[in-house]
Amino acid sequence: MNSVLPLFLALALIVALAKAAGYASVRMGQPAVLGELLIGLMLGPTALDMLHWPVFGGAELDGTITVLANLGVLVLMFVAGLEVDPQALWRAGRSATVTGVSGVFVPVITAALAFPMLGYSLQESLFLGLVLAATSVSISAQTLMELGVLRSAVGVALLGAAIIDDVLVVLLLAVLLALGSGGGGGLAVVWVFARMVLFLAGVLFIGRPVVRWLASSVDDLPISEGVMSLAVVLAFGIAWISEALGGMAAITGAFLAGLLFRGTSYREHIEDGMHTLAYALLVPIFFVSIGLEADARAIGMAGLPFATLFVVLAVLTKIVGCGLGARLAGLSGTDALRLGVGMTSRGEVGLIVAAIGIETRVLSSELFATAVVMVLVTTLLTPALLRLLYPRAPAVVPAPDAGPADPPPLAFEATDAAVAIEED
Fold first, then answer.
1. Among 24, 50, 145, 236, whose Cα sits 20 to 30 Å from the Cα of 329?
2. pTM here?
3. Other C-beta atoms lying within 10 Å of the C-beta of residue 52
4. What is the pLDDT of residue 252?
5. What are the b/e assignments for 260-289, b being 16+ CB within 10 Å?
């Protein structure tokens, strides 16, 4: 058998089942992403362990699916960047900053106070606090796009707060690792911060005119889909720079790349092309892969009480921390709750922090399994809770020829706290 044939079958099953589950979820009044996450959990090692079925002939598909899933989340965040007005993001700076800061320090302080009482060391407790502090808004961004409110005050503040969260978690992680290594801690932290500042300054102040010039220049060349190819190159390129050189998560770089292209005259063309690439293949793979990688049975009965506590704290510390920050920044109680819920999903960012913990031998395999389950549960809860908090934004049932995960055109949410959208 051709070694690539099992991959073809796996991808066909993943995309077909993801779309069917998403459609069923929309029919039940829930975001499509919830159905795709649930079908991934059913297909994963927690239930059916699909990737190890005999029909795949023992092919090692896990790594390939993970790579495609990583491409999917990058494209998803690039699309989210295309949808958000940079001026609205700038105006949401205060609420995003306060929300991001409180959403990091409340989980970290809670873990530092609570977990030592359960017998864990201070280093373990702080690392678990960082796992709780991490936020991945890819799930929330997709859900808000489906509900048509990504460009509302909550949606814009959510994306800005996620960037602040990313910066703080990376800085605190650098501090914790530097203290654990026993030397050069201060210099290491300064270097991490300097890399972040240089990266953000380069993207925000130099990137926009450069991208406009590049897009215009490429459009004049006799190249098939030249501008779309440029968008793909820069989305992945800036994502690489973000993590490899800037010290931030790759999804942050992809989101910023989308912001850069929003200010060009090619935005609609790029958006159409990226939606096709994203929602026909890559994004469904990303959502399903979360369940494919999670094994809730790894905890065992002995670890279930702490895992339950960890999940409860994961939900409460984000909702309380981010919600309190949003209220202090002037958002209404309802919008503050929505923002807190939107920041609850840990996604791949939480897994990255947990993976660093087990690589440095700070976290045990049992604690890592607990972190994986927490990531899975918060990822499943977030879209369902957001749907409950937006009763006036009904999910749109797509046409028969459209994929259930395709987000409808974004609508402006008419609330007092909403951010005015400037049409290009």
1. 145
2. 0.76
3. 13
4. 86
5. bbbbbebbebbbebbbebbbebbbbbbbbb
